[in-house]
Protein 1
Amino acid sequence: MSSGFRSLSRAMLLGFVRDRTALFFTILFPLMFLVLFGGLLKNQGVSRSKVIEVGPVAVIDQVPADAKRELGKLLDVTKMTDRAKALDAVRKGDYEAAVEQQGDRVMVHYSAADQVRAGTVRSVFDQLVQQTNLAAAGTPPRLSLDAQQVEDKSLKTIQFVTPGLLGWAIATGATFGAAMTLVTWREKKILRRLRLSPVRISSVVSARVGVSVGVALLQTAIFLGVASLPSFGLKLSNYWWMSLPVILVGTFAFLSIGLVAGAWAKTQESANVIAQLVVLPMAFLSGSFFPLDSAPKWLQAVAEIFPLRHLNQAMLDVMVRGKGPASVLPEMGILAGFAIVLTLLATRLFRWDDV
Amino acid sequence: MGSTITVRGLHKSYESLKAVDGVSFDVEAGEFFGILGPNGAGKTTTLEIVEGLRKPDAGAVELFGESPWPRNPALLPRIGVQLQASSFFERLTAREQIHTFASLYGVGAKKADEMLELVGLTDKADVRAEKLSGGQMQRLSIACALVHDPELVFLDEPTAALDPQARRNLWDLLRAINTQGRTIVLTTHYMDEAEILCDRVAIMDHGRILQSGSPAELVRGLDTPTRISIETGAIAVDEARRLFQGAEVDDDGVSLTLVTRTPAPVLAALAERNALRGLSVRGATLEDVFLNLTGREYRA
């Protein structure tokens, strides 16, 4: 390692650490999103519907204890005896439904105001009634209710948002880092000064790459650390360490975007705008903020051009979905290819000087 | 061993503009050489080609007998380049700046701190570069250019935008560096600066060197009359006209000015009459040479 590499890395690192704006946008800002998404939306996965039990309702009361626990995840049952009052409460929207049973008839009164919840409640009772019927028909009385979120059962909110937001943070850090260094150093004639010193160009480039990789690893450590706190409860899978090489190639890919932006832009302001125009839409379309599963197919196809999409996928796979290390190799290949192509483009656009 | 710098027939055009149009000069070891010229004369482009930052369209440059283009790593440790005052890493202190530059040349921290001391910035060592005053920045930037003991130093308008105190201090520093045996090439458009500092200057305009030589030679070559001023009333205007037939006499109510090509007898006659109150004698300066060569119309 040359002394040029070391001192330039140090200069860049000090410049970064002392830049409050950069620190905020690469670390604190994404972390705020993590706390917001992970904290506020914690219970959003399976939200309970509030139901009034008017008088004794056998289909609810007779459910075995373990099934009752499952049922409790879906329904928040309140007992009431006054039927009129119960129906009024449903009409007001305080409860999703009121249930009563008269002999063999189970009646669910619901409000159409929230159709999604009404549907949930109806289907739950539909199931309860059918299973009771099955039991009555002589099949072993095994009522079992399997309450599951339909999207992806392994992904609690925190499991999903951590890799996504981390990907966004890494993309921001690496893209802006490379673009700003390049433009600022050119504007301030530092590139020209370096060119007139005996430092090797490879030392300059590897210093930038080294600092960006360091920043990305720091972001990873902070994110995984915060998300693993008991109040957020991130659970990493066995192969989470495989996300480190994934992050490494991902950082290369974003650096290459930054290099192109920095080589192309003339001023710091325009480099900033170009980088933002790339990173923000990329983050949205890559599923950093919300899952793309429900997005239209063509949009999902478009998203495939973004390296962040592949980084997010790969990190989800090894960090929380528990897929094996080999499963992310194709993703890593795509990221590496992206980095190579854009770096070649950047070297063609590269200018030492403004003129 | 030849000259430190040899420049032969440089040409460089940007589209239709001939920025450098046939420039040749030599700089000897230990010389303090100035390139003068109005804005847009081609000074900076010439300097950049000599430093090896640009490739000339035609012509040749040799520094210590070697070509600086393409980037010549063997040559780079022997030259020091001071760029504009703002060429610093962001958010680093003065000490961190010079340590960074020093290590690019494999120079240790101790030498870097000594350099900081030499330019009088030790007490500002922990101040970030962008918080330094203009003069302090210039000194830091020169310190960064000199930290690796280069034999040849390029300075591009080092005293631009400095106050008179800072300029004088910087001149002392530059002279001290030159006295150590280093060759210095400087561009400036301050003529007094060039006159005081440079052993030899080249005056450029429109991409060509119009004249070169030592400042004194150039001034003498201009052959302009001497202006002798004394206080109004030290001698009557009529008497002055009568005494000094060959001279132009003018009285503006504050000073009486005589413009003559033979200053010695005029001064002697004035001294005889005890009429030297408020005397000032002004010959031509490099500025006169410069304006005579480049004209007075505004430049870009």
Protein 2
Amino acid sequence: MKLKNLEFLGPVFIIAGLLVSRYLFPNKITFFTEISIYTIYVMGNNILMGYMGYTSFGQPFYLSCGAYSAAIYLAYIGGNVFVAIFVAFLVGLLLSFILGPSLMRLKGSYFTLINASLCAIGVFMFERLLIDITNGNDGLWYRSNMHKTPLLDIRMPQNYFFFILIVLLAALYLYRKIDRSALGTVLKAASTNPRKMRFLGYNVFRIRWMAFTISVVFSTIAGALYSVNFGFVNPSLGENSRAIEVLLATLIGGIGTVYGPFFGALGFLGMKDFVSSFLSRWEFVVGIMTLIVLFKFNRGLWGMIQDAGSFLADTGRKFKNNSVKTAEK
Amino acid sequence: MNQGNKLLNVEKLNVCYGKLAVVFDVSVNINAGEVVFLVGRNGAGKTTLLRTIAGFLQPASGEIEFNGKNLNKTGAYKTARMGLKYIHQDKQVFGDLTIRENLELSSYATKDYDWDPVFKMFPKLNTIIERKAGNLSGGEKQMLLIAMAMIGKPALVMLDEPTEGLAPHVIKDLAAIFKEISRTTTLFIVEQNLPLIASIADRVYCMKEGKVVNEITTREQISSMHFEQYL
């Protein structure tokens, strides 16, 4: 079987890698859970940035809306974690329904900056306007309200890790399906030549809105998964300064690819975790390393892995051909 | 195709870019089954007229009717869905996608997945179907654009200077292809290539300074390139 034919097993390899890592480094289980959730968050941004060519500084806003919707449900309404995640999914749909029509008519820096202002609005909303519900900067705690879930009690970190892996596996296969389907081709084409798409009969605005919806829903679900993981949420999750992190992770992984978000999350959080263990200003080193990756390997980590794979395949083929020739002689 | 039926009717069309008027009281009729050319010097308003009919520009006044439906406020994508396709002169394809993916895009939009007629017309496209469209020559890109437009069996295809920048042998091939297409689809072409026009045109509209100044309808006048004075 050729390596290319094994590509459909990519999500399984990623999950297997995380599983093995969890047993190799048992005290890093929270870190691996965070990578898995962050991958879903980066996937959302990658739809906008990699497929549609939109740079959004508003992703933390969508993330915090998902996190707060799940948190508010868990703190005041019910204790079912799955319902909390579903609430975040609905909030994602609602946000894209309200914001999408106006945001997706914007171009370039207008889109970027208006999204950035959404972060400021979000922080103000969760910190001040809704202080009676969110407890402002003190944050909202609700872990004790979370009910035990059947089969797997996901309130326990070790069980939550397995639950997140299942969610990530589903998300990766869904993402792969989108990329390989008509929708994936349409999204990419609409970003490169919208005029030509109209000539073919496509409603480009609707395509953009659809991409925005997928992006927001991925972000709000990631937010809900975060809030369940920590049992706590505070307004800093949606701060403007965090917008750059998800953009960097997307670039580091390789934009517009299926597996780039995972390697972006792994690369970014890995660098952050490693550097911050011996340097308080980890941003400096992470910034320099990001520049190196982007200038030297502008297709990101996934691009590097693909190039390495092609190189190994070519070398193997040449070696095989040479062996056959030598045997013939 | 109901030969002879009025397919496109443009009446007293005026188009402006802001306050600058570019097309003045233009009236054009195209019947089903015809191959109609539009000629004129650079800046005569030919491309503006086509872009307005295709829905990329809004007319200041006048009427555009296609198959009996008013197109004045119909957006470009809706016009395309109604069976009126427009091929720009820029020959831009989706360069990062393969020929197959480019054709698929057209199929998704029109729900027409029958590529046989297109491959019959352009067999070469089938042989290089996995090639990235960005690596094609100018002639191949034009073939791909026509192929994409033909998927979904449109009633009318408008082409803006399809032979511009192409080698003579490619132009010859295109002339044969236009003849083939015209058996099933009406063509409205902006063109500067005199021999091509003379060989396949049924009628020729001549534009000058934003107005249609002449309509050439007889075969003798077309063959003798009577429209040359407007180029």
